[in-house]
Amino acid sequence: MGQAFDSVAFLAHCSSHPGVYRMLDAEGRLLYIGKAKSLKKRLSSYFRKSGLAPKTAALVARIAQVETTITANETEALLLEQTLIKEWRPPYNILLRDDKSYPYVFLSGGVFPRLSIHRGAKKQKGRYFGPYPSAGSIRESLGLLQKAFLVRQCEDSYFRSRTRPCLQYQIKRCKGPCVGLVDPAEYAEDVRHSVMFLEGRSNALAEELLAGMEQAAIRLDFEQAAKLRDQVALLRRVQDQQSMEGGSGDVDVLAAVVNPGGACVHLISVRGGRVLGSKSFFPQVGIEEGVGEVLAAFLGQYYLANSERDLPGELIVNAMHEDFSALASVLGEQRGGELHISHRVRATRARWQQLAVANAEQALSARLAHRQHLATRFEALAEALDLVELPRRMECFDISHSSGEATVASCVVFGPEGALKSDYRRYNIEGVTAGDDYAAMHQALTRRFGKLREGEGHLPDILLVDGGKGQLAMAREVLQEFAVPELILLGVAKGVTRKPGLETLYLNDASHEFTLPADSPALHLIQQIRDEAHRFAIAGHRSRRGKARRTSTLEGVAGVGAKRRRELLKYFGGLQELSRASIDEIAKTPGISKKLAESIYAALHSE
Fold first, then answer.
1. Which of the 8 DSSP states describes residue 95?
2. Burial of residue 111 (number of CB atoms within 10 Å: 0-12, 13-18, 19+)
3. Residue 55 DSSP code
4. What is the DSSP string of 429-482?
5. Alpha-carbon torsion, ordered 232, 237, 238, 244, to 10 deg
6. Strands 126-129 and 104-108: what pairing?
7. pTM score > 0.70 for this model?
8. d(C-alpha 509, C-alpha 488), whole Å
9. What is the pLDDT, as a whole number, of residue 241?
10. Strand ordering across the sheet containing 126-129
């Protein structure tokens, strides 16, 4: 047992200036990062003799060293704290595990612009609208625009290659600009209306469409009047669904809910008075924190850690915190304008706030119910396998291919709280006989445990392989090679009828064969993980196979560019006929020499 931390001696020489403190354990591992207006006062609160929350007391019991960094002011301390938390992710801090960029609607340039979903850096020329809190909400908006104004959403390469209208034209979701079926001026007007909608000017747009409808009726152009009437009706329906009367401005509404099982922050994005969508976040709460502390930590990590986020002029929260004034100041500088953090709101803003709270409560309740259900399954599995401790990490491997083509192995990871998707991995299998699942499994596991030997990743408690005795033997061989024979190995073989509930299980080797009742929670957990590995493997295989099939065999032949590929395919009527041709027949193609024909023939018959 190491020597206890001498808090009295430390505090005697601690500065009262603003700054950041870092708490470390006896092995030098970072436990917690915090900031303070006065380092001495803040750190003194940790070492009082009574009144500490249980989790805070657990943190203090592990402290062996405290390091401090003095800053010029509280704002600098806030910025440094967020930078250090993002870099080191200490276990006792509130951590936001969501680093994804958020999607925008992108309107490209050109005579016939395209609307699409965009993530990442805004490098393309065009206009960006958003951000939207989720891909679902952005697809909903794009679907509406496609129905109302028929602006194209197809890829530019697809648009340029069309010689006749596609299905979108047939179902009245596009006006066929690819083949000149719409006048550029008419298309530009549809784009302008789409922009008005995306800017949140739905009322002005509806009024303009109504005026156009009246003018069309006066001209006796009843077909055009009916089109405009349908567009107005669609807009009104969306306004009923997505907007609340009297709402205006750009606002992010955030509500936090905390209970003994965890925390949830629900974010509602409002732009131009219209609710664009919402999303729930589940930050890791390390020590006992209130709603205000969770919100303060979330705001810092969500907005400060990603300077590209679109910051509105106002944030509405369901609790206040002393750090909000400093946060508002820093975020205002980042935004390039004033930013307010509001708590006491009325009318529409109060309804948005209540909606965010209700969503946060519901999301957290559903998550905890799922976690409890999953924990029950893990306990049942531990009992079925006669384990002393509950498994904390299970990895499952599966193989997917089509008659040996584009073989992909998947690895999915589960813990008592659910799928650990950030730890999922796919392995493109190379250099094995087509269709040899045993060799593919051997290669995938070798690569997985090879990374573990290099210090990457974590050793699972249970390794689950989808397959029978052969896959199990291959997995056991790899575990022997990497000197981890003690790792629990579980093979899952489908029964004779291949129906769920009739699986045969193998524990560690083929001699330990057993089954579980069809209603067993332990079996349900195994099926859930096995099915997820199967889904993940199939998705990877289809992606790899599709990519391979989109790539012509001719693309890898030196001297055969796009023009010569077109000539070859045109001359023979397709790749299949070209594959059947001899070297002499290929050489008859205009622009193809005998030497180049030999290279083409070799490429087509290399497999």
1. B
2. exposed
3. H
4. --SS-TT-HHHHHHHHHHHHHHHHHTT-S---SEEEEESSHHHHHHHHHHHHHT
5. 110
6. antiparallel
7. no
8. 10
9. 45
10. 115-118, 104-108, 126-129
Cβ(172)–Cβ(316) under 8 Å? no
| In contact, 39 and 18? CB cutoff 8 Å | yes
Check residue 100 and report its DSSP letter: P
DSSP-based helix, strand, coil % in the chain, nearest 5: 45, 20, 35
Report the alpha-carbon angle 478-483-486, nearest 5.
90
Phi first, then psi, for residue 50 (nearest 5°) are -150, 170
Alpha helices in 102-183 (DSSP H): 135-149, 156-161, 167-170
175, 315 contact by CB (below 8 A): no
Whole-number CA gyration radius for the chain = 31
Cβ neighbour number for residue 512 with a 10 Å cutoff: 13
377 in Cβ contact with 524 (< 8 Å): yes
598 vs 604: CA distance, rounded Å: 10
Under 8 Å between Cβ of 316 and 252: yes
Segments of the chain scoring below 50 in pLDDT: 1, 240-246
For residue 1, the model assigns a pLDDT of: 46
Please tell me the predicted confidence (pLDDT) of residue 9: 81
β-bridge partners, 463 = 395, 489
At residue 188, the pLDDT reads 92
Euclidean distance between CA atoms 467 and 410, whole angstroms: 13
Residue 492 to residue 506: CA distance in whole angstroms: 7
Contacts of 298 (CB under 8 A, 6+ apart): 94, 96, 254, 256, 265, 281, 283
Residue with tokens 């965010």: 356
Peptide bond into 90 cis (omega under 30): no
Q: For residues 448 and 479, what is the distance between their CA atoms, to the nearest angstrom?
A: 11
How does pLDDT run across 270-294, given as a tens digit for each residue? 877 777 777 888 887 766 678 998 9
Half-sphere exposure of 600 (CA within 13 A, CB side): 29
| Cα angle 12-13-17, degrees, rounded to a multiple of 5 | 110
Q: What pLDDT score was predicted for residue 396?
A: 94
**pLDDT value of residue 240:** 47
Are 288 and 54 in contact by the 8 Å Cβ rule? The answer is: yes
pLDDT recorded at residue 120: 75
User: Is the backbone of residue 360 left (phi > 0), alpha (psi -120 to 50) or beta?
Assistant: alpha
Q: Which helix or strand (DSSP H or E) is residue 238 part of? A: helix 222-242
d(CA 404, CA 400): 9
**128 Cβ partners below 8 Å, 6+ apart?**
104, 105, 106, 107, 118, 122
- Block residue for tokens 């040996």: 404
* Torsion angle (degrees, nearest 10) of CA 310, 316, 317, 319: 140
pLDDT at 406: 78
Q: What is the pLDDT of residue 137?
A: 66
